[in-house]
């Protein structure tokens, strides 16, 4: 039994959901998101709540039940509030700046890394060592943050590199004489 799937998804003011043709379309003040609905679950809108129920008691139906409910909740939260991921850059001379539609990263390589910012994502650099990624699609925000972090992952000895702001780096002790 899914514990996540039992709970309804509350629709806040200004968010509407349309269920047609096996596709859920969520519209809000920040944008529109679409989700294909699995044939193993049934989605119903009652008032300002969205209920997800499995059609059968198969393993696939139980898996789709909780996943569909969680995806719908993330979509509703995204179009109403949005999502933000914060990255921190540690290292001497490491810095970031937004130039037009690109994020310029100076990470100690012989060249600057230029990352093109995708549509629907906003990137800000208040300080040269902090990056804020904002958008209404949770998957896309996380993917962009992960791709930026991949350019220079934090290393365990000095902690140099790009890390999430809430991430802790397990530090290792260096060589001893």
Automatic annotation (TrEMBL):
Describe, as the record does, how this protein assembles with itself and its partners.
Answer: Part of the 50S ribosomal subunit.
Top-down, what is the taxonomic lineage of the species of origin? Bacteria, Pseudomonadati, Pseudomonadota, Alphaproteobacteria, Rhodospirillales
- Keywords from the UniProt entry: Ribonucleoprotein, Ribosomal protein, RNA-binding, rRNA-binding
What region holds the Large ribosomal subunit protein uL6 alpha-beta domain?
Answer: 12-82, 91-164
Q: Of which family is this protein a member?
A: Belongs to the universal ribosomal protein uL6 family.
Q: Where are the transmembrane segments?
A: none
Q: Which InterPro entries match?
A: Ribosomal_uL6-like, Ribosomal_uL6-like_a/b-dom_sf, Ribosomal_uL6_a/b-dom, Ribosomal_uL6_bac-type, Ribosomal_uL6_CS
Function (record text): This protein binds to the 23S rRNA, and is important in its secondary structure. It is located near the subunit interface in the base of the L7/L12 stalk, and near the tRNA binding site of the peptidyltransferase center.
Q: What is this protein called?
A: Large ribosomal subunit protein uL6
Q: Which organism is it from?
A: Dongia rigui
